[in-house]
Amino acid sequence: MDFIRYAEAAASLLNADLAEVDGLVAYLDDRPWLQEKATDRDCMLLRKLQRELRPVFDAGEAGDLPGVTGGLNTLLARHPITPQISDHDAQHLHLHVATGSGSVAEQVIGESLLGLATLVCDLGADRLGVCASATCSNAFVDASPNRSRRYCSERCSSRANVAAYRARQKAGA
């Protein structure tokens, strides 16, 4: 299991529009085997997870370690995960999340929580963030070597830098 990839997917899930199945299908764009199984119920369950997971990212942004760990522990207790060793690539053993019902929502929730929990334990709770742009509130995972990420995307970073440049130019005039 690539826990950073799963954690980043959890942040993307928070930023996804899951009002309709089409939004979930778009979120699962690299996983056609899950896309074909996506249902309205999966969307409902994942919207609930979005509401429950958002405070964890807000706590990470605020440097609130108990908020991050408490939030994740509550979600882990609510959504039990069964990791299993995958040997489909004998040269690269890794963990997968096994789910009881096999629903899309259970799969995504399990991967998200295990990825975030592993990331927080291995790299720290301060790796969960919220975009610093005044016009954006997207969540992100900071996998940078020096913990310097402040924006959810290059687009938001560029917009903020251009706005700051223009403000300096205006102030200097």
TrEMBL record:
<dbReference type="InterPro" id="IPR021005">
    <property type="entry name" value="Znf_CGNR"/>
</dbReference>
<dbReference type="Pfam" id="PF11706">
    <property type="entry name" value="zf-CGNR"/>
</dbReference>
<dbReference type="InterPro" id="IPR023286">
    <property type="entry name" value="ABATE_dom_sf"/>
</dbReference>
<dbReference type="InterPro" id="IPR010852">
    <property type="entry name" value="ABATE"/>
</dbReference>
<protein>
    <submittedName>
        <fullName>CGNR zinc finger domain-containing protein</fullName>
    </submittedName>
</protein>
<feature type="domain" description="Zinc finger CGNR">
    <location>
        <begin position="127"/>
        <end position="169"/>
    </location>
</feature>
